[in-house]
Amino acid sequence: MTRKLFVIILLLITVKLSAQEVTYNQVKAEYEAFEYEKVIQLSNALIKQGGISDSLKIDVYQMRVVAFYSLGDELSTQNSFREILKINKNYSPNPSKISPRLIAIFQTVKENYLKSLAQETTKRDSTGQAKKVFVPSQFKSSALKNIFVPGWGQISNGYSTKGYILSAASSINLAAMIYFIFDTKKKENEYLKEINKNLIEPKYNSFNKSYKIRNTLIASYIIIWLYSQIDLHLLSNGLEDNSNSGQSEITYRGANQEFRLNWRIPFSF
């Protein structure tokens, strides 16, 4: 058992010593000797090893470009150019070191690469849009809630900030309105029952002041209520995510059809 273990350890040490690391200078030496197959083999090992700077990595891929092209592998030539662009998208080949044919291939690869980058950016931006899904049954529930408590519908649809502001404003306004309705009625009765000439005018002024405040609160509550209903139907009838892009989308999902509407608004809650 001890002998077998010794043999295994000896074999592992032998393999480790034989597996020497490939260097950049080795790849370059084979390249200058036009040993392109060895260039590809050694450069594969060097890239897998890692630990080299971006500038040296670009030089290695440039050697691979020439090696693959010389061996008639144009697809791998294009892939090597693409790897260079991944490191530096502003890379430009040196005409004194690379043939015009390779430069033409590079221009095609670069054009396609930049186009794919633009498409990926557009896709990421589109996924970052504020997307709203309009479901009829859900909207009916939100609309019903909003009739009773302005802002409740917005909260149900995911517009929490806007909904809580409207709910707080309408609730405070409603409470004050109810108070002044009873207060106005009370002061009106006191004014009508007053027979003391000295107190008639003060009672009237108190009643009149309460009456005006009541009417103002009624008008303001109506305005808040109407605004909340209009906002719910036109701006807050979808499910909101956390994007701040300003781009919005509504998707109407019926039983047998789907309808989508996109629009851009300058701001949102």
What does this structure look like?
The longest helix has 38 residues, at 197-234. The chain has a three-stranded mixed sheet with strand order 1-2-3. The protein has helices at residues 2-18, 24-32, 36-49, 54-70, 74-87, 100-127, 136-148, 152-156, 160-193, 197-234, and strands spanning 130-134, 247-253, 258-264. It folds into two domains: 21-116, Alpha Horseshoe (Serine Threonine Protein Phosphatase 5, Tetratricopeptide repeat), CATH 1.25.40; 130-264. Mean pLDDT is 80; it is low at 13-19, 239-250 and 263-269. The protein starts with a helix and ends in a 5-residue tail after the last strand. It contains ten helices and three strands. The radius of gyration is 38 Å and the shape is rod-shaped. The protein is mainly alpha-helical and 269 residues long. Helix 4 runs antiparallel to helix 5 (74-87). Helix content is 70%, strand content 7%.
List keywords for this structure.
single chain, 269 residues, 2 domains, Serine Threonine Protein Phosphatase 5, Tetratricopeptide repeat, 70% helix, rod-shaped, mainly alpha
The string of secondary-structure elements, in order, is HHHHHHEHHHHEE
How many structural domains? 2
Span between termini: 75 Å
| Integer average pLDDT | 80
Helix amount, in percent?
over 70%
Low-confidence stretches: 13-19, 239-250, 263-269
Number of strands: 3
Strand count, sense and closure of the main sheet?
A: 3 strands, mixed
Strand residue percentage: 5-15%
Structural class designation: mainly alpha
The DSSP helix count reads: 10
The strand line-up of the biggest sheet is 1-2-3
- Alpha-carbon Rg, integer: 38 Å
